[in-house]
Amino acid sequence: MADASYGKAADADRKFALSVDVEDYFQVWAFSKVISRNAWDDFPLRVGASTRRCLDLFDKHNVKATFFILGWVAERDPSLVRDIVARGHEVASHGFDHTKVTQQTSAAFREDVLKTKKLLEDIGGVAVMGYRAAGFSIDSTTPWAHDVLAEAGHLYSSSSHPVAHDHYGDPCGRRDCHQPIDGDNFIEAPVATVDILGKRISCAGGGRFRVSPVPLSKALMKRAAASLNGPAIFYFHPWEIDTGQPRIRSASLKSKMRHYLNIEAMPGKLSRMLSAFQWRRIDDALGLRASA
């Protein structure tokens, strides 16, 4: 396994990368046991409006981000993809319908990757370099996944969350950006974590960010940026700022807690986080795109 070389001094202004996983509230893993993919079209789409609120918030704070978009969403709201491009953000792939890589064969994964990449490129009119697996599901059990992505023309993946978690993660995974394919420049860029007293902690966003004090989140991100070889990558979902979304009453108490906890505070907390750092698109932070 090769190592990518990122000079910390040269990349001092590229230490923080912002990403958004564009999926609607009914497509999350917390609700997958009570809402099947076949039922998705029964739910009114809210992701377009909530993602556009993200775009407005990013404009207010003068930051750029990478949007990992489900192909299923892009098919139903192609203007959203074009709006993201028009505002100067990166369009990247989140796969077609949020199926984890670990639940696919390599052949099925290849078909999904190619289908979604072409769809996003045809709609957005830009090259799609990045990919993020549903549920951060590229790990040691899918050794073929990075090869498939590279062969499809992707230049990087941000599909690793190297922590212990009941839905995702690899606590033994590498924290730094690295090149997982020998002889290839393809990059795996994990989301941000820190090691404290021998314990690995996520500071990448999601539910942990919603329940943590903002000063703590800022401090952990600073520590991640100082210790990682490559950018500290933060993520969230548009549904996390959609405080008016319908409640899924049939979900388990644990799933409801995971999804809804502190969601009312998320817009304000996110705004404070955006003002704390110089955020970039992931392709920019990795040096795959000339800075604007």
3D architecture notes:
The protein has one domain (12-285): Glycoside hydrolase/deacetylase (TIM Barrel), CATH 3.20.20. Helix content is 34%, strand content 12%. The chain has 10 helices and 9 strands. It has helices at 47-61, 71-76, 78-86, 106-124, 145-152, 206-211, 214-227, 253-260, 266-274, 282-285, and strands at residues 16-22, 66-69, 90-93, 130-131, 156-157, 187-188, 193-196, 199-202, 232-236. The protein has a 4-stranded parallel sheet with strand order 3-2-1-9. Strands 4-5-6 form a 3-stranded parallel sheet, with helices on one face. Helix 4 (106-124) packs parallel to helix 5 (145-152). The longest helix is centred in the middle third of the chain and has 19 residues, at 106-124.
CATH topology: TIM Barrel
Query: How would you sum up the global shape?
Result: globular
Q: What is the second-level CATH architecture?
A: Alpha-Beta Barrel
| CATH homology group | Glycoside hydrolase/deacetylase
Q: Helical residue percent?
A: 25-40%
The CATH class designation is Alpha Beta
Number of extended strands: 9
Main beta-sheet strand count, sense and barrel state? 4 strands, parallel
Structural class: alpha/beta
Strands ordered across the widest β-sheet: 3-2-1-9
Order of helices and strands: EHEHHEHEHEEEEHHEHHH
Gyration radius, in Å: 18 Å
